[in-house]
Amino acid sequence: MAATEPGQLDPVSPRTANLAALLRALRAGPLSRTQLAARCGLTKAAVSGLITELSERGLVRSAGLQGGGNGRPSQLVELNGASACGLALSVEADRFAAVVTNLDGRVVAERTETADVAALGLHRSMDELAFLARQLLLGDQPVGVTVSVPGLVDSAAAVLRFAPTLRWRDAEIADLLAARLGLTVDAIRVDNEANLGAVGEVVAGVGRGVRELFYLSGGTGVGGGLVSGGTILRGARGFAGEVGHITVDPSGEQCPCGRVGCLETKAGLSAVLRGAASPGDPLHDPALGVDGRVGLLKHRVRRGDQRAVAAVSELGVALGIAVSTVVDVLDPDVVVLGGYFAELGEWLVEPVRRELSARPLGHEPACRVEPSPLGTTAPLRGAAHLATERLFADPTLVPVVTSSSIDTAEAPA
Amino acid sequence: MAATEPGQLDPVSPRTANLAALLRALRAGPLSRTQLAARCGLTKAAVSGLITELSERGLVRSAGLQGGGNGRPSQLVELNGASACGLALSVEADRFAAVVTNLDGRVVAERTETADVAALGLHRSMDELAFLARQLLLGDQPVGVTVSVPGLVDSAAAVLRFAPTLRWRDAEIADLLAARLGLTVDAIRVDNEANLGAVGEVVAGVGRGVRELFYLSGGTGVGGGLVSGGTILRGARGFAGEVGHITVDPSGEQCPCGRVGCLETKAGLSAVLRGAASPGDPLHDPALGVDGRVGLLKHRVRRGDQRAVAAVSELGVALGIAVSTVVDVLDPDVVVLGGYFAELGEWLVEPVRRELSARPLGHEPACRVEPSPLGTTAPLRGAAHLATERLFADPTLVPVVTSSSIDTAEAPA
């Protein structure tokens, strides 16, 4: 169910594929060999041999006995969460963030540093990011690294093609970080923040268990991430989901992009703040940061400030049109309003639902609309999930460290 | 490369999967056993055994010798196109159509019958369609049937949920046709005409070899079909690509659907014809049929008729906005203008390309825009392809008929 990217992984041998299938099955919790055999379509003998290998690699361990319904108890096997870790990094206009997670998804360490990333430039930013990562890793070698960036990414090449807020073009993020972290380039994946936000919602947010999801993220720009069939939908060049410049009003404002009436001219944070207050108002004070300005806007809407209420109401109309369009194109199960839209969810979800329920398809709108419960952390959550994903596709990435510490025999069922 | 729907097929045994891989490899033309072994990752001994079975099922045959570059010639094997056939059917508002194709995609028989399908109703329409099919099949049993319908389809259940032009709801097309044609329900696939049009373009039109394609189809309504990663993108309920009611002008006309400024209010055929001529003009004469009215419109644009030119120019603007939106969402390699848009392609392709080249992504627009070379036959071409697809996934659907007529030995390489 978790979003993975099989296309990016090297083909593995049938034995490795079976090791991987067992490891993934154990993600949901401890299981007996008999249960593993049933879930993975393997014989119990094959499972025993494979579990021995996973144990020798340190990836699984015994988890006590399970009382059998009809007789003798079974030995349980569980994931050894601490045996490996993944590193998630994110670059935003005003901050770097890093998270180290266990194999079982638990956060081991995390840190955020504010910075003027555009002013730092690419190379010094990569120095900072690597420094942050080393502080958290404490010498551990991650099985994978995923980097979230705000821009157009060629994910196959692990290159950030263009990030307008950072003014970076063709930034070879994976190469730069691999050199700084002493890792191979193929351990590092680079992805767009909205794509990773969509994955975050699928693994840890309102999209759990969902295979078709649209994540719409509000910030200085407006971005989107798509999950279809349980994997990120990328399109031909990796730019799918770039909804910031879809037309929501052809008689609207000129957008710096060259088009007219783009979603960003109505839903980008600065456009909304301009609508909500005159120049010079504290709502425009960069010193407050994005979170501070959104918090102030929210406070004013609560208080009933007319301009703030009108600006958020217009934002709801624009999001309604944009979301309806994407829903018609993609037919998702869930639409998630992320980034700063999540903060304003109490005023945005209803107008979007209303526009969707005016749908012409002759059926109840089955598509849910929800504010992101993860807020601005969704991309980092998605990145953390994908960072360990490499190991769940190929458990032989970690070496055999000990002879098996696990009982190779199981009490007969 | 061909669009297939593996999700809909039952899992097959490893041997069957290998038979299928060989059969698919032979689609491109005759190959030797050595070549087949290399392409399918099998040993030459395995290939020989599998080819014997395919030959016993009548699906392949010897195709003479190929001069070896470095010595003795090799025996070639080829698809036996005439050994099986697929049936494609289509229902449109004003006609039924049927095509029977060979295993190699060659058309064996085809026929179109005009009819007022809405007036006939569902059951009499299915009688007519089955009658048409039996006339073409001449007693042959197709390996698969694909039915193209103009509406929302639950393709897993093979049910047409809603077809506004036919006024059919929850029509169990596969059940009704299976009973009339003496076939099992699982041999019959029902799909939306725009989805099948997209497949048609991938297998036989401007999308050959393309894995990401958007097919936009103009008719009374406006529909869309998406191919992503080489397969039809369906979304959660099978309604992906339904772009007829995306908003292209929020200050535009009220649409019967309940929304305002939908693409159909600008690009549906009757909207365009209303723009091009006053009531009472022959352009609105239903007796001319869709093709006749579009032909007349085209004639007037060529002649420079002002209203006709203006109407087609407005249509280009609306398509530009809609296509740009879908391109931002999906990032396809190719956009195909199908249905009546293809007929007017010489005036529509340029405005769409112009709007796309105003893209903000900071890269040359790599997305091609092309009129459909298949025109209104694209859905039937896609349906014909998918009708035989079942056999290419499971060659054991046809029984063993003879002992192998093929040489089991090959001249040593």
Automatic annotation (TrEMBL), chains A, B:
Molecular function GO terms recorded: DNA-binding transcription factor activity
Stored Gene3D superfamilies: 3.30.420.40, Winged helix-like DNA-binding domain superfamily/Winged helix DNA-binding domain (1.10.10.10)
Superkingdom of origin organism: Bacteria
Transmembrane segments: none
Name of this chain's protein: Transcriptional regulator
Protein family according to the UniProt entry: Belongs to the ROK (NagC/XylR) family.
Residue span(s) of domain HTH marR-type: 21-62
InterPro entries xref list: ATPase_NBD (IPR043129), HTH_MarR-typ (IPR000835), ROK (IPR000600), WH-like_DNA-bd_sf (IPR036388), WH_DNA-bd_sf (IPR036390)
PANTHER family: BIFUNCTIONAL UDP-N-ACETYLGLUCOSAMINE 2-EPIMERASE_N-ACETYLMANNOSAMINE KINASE, ROK (REPRESSOR, ORF, KINASE) FAMILY
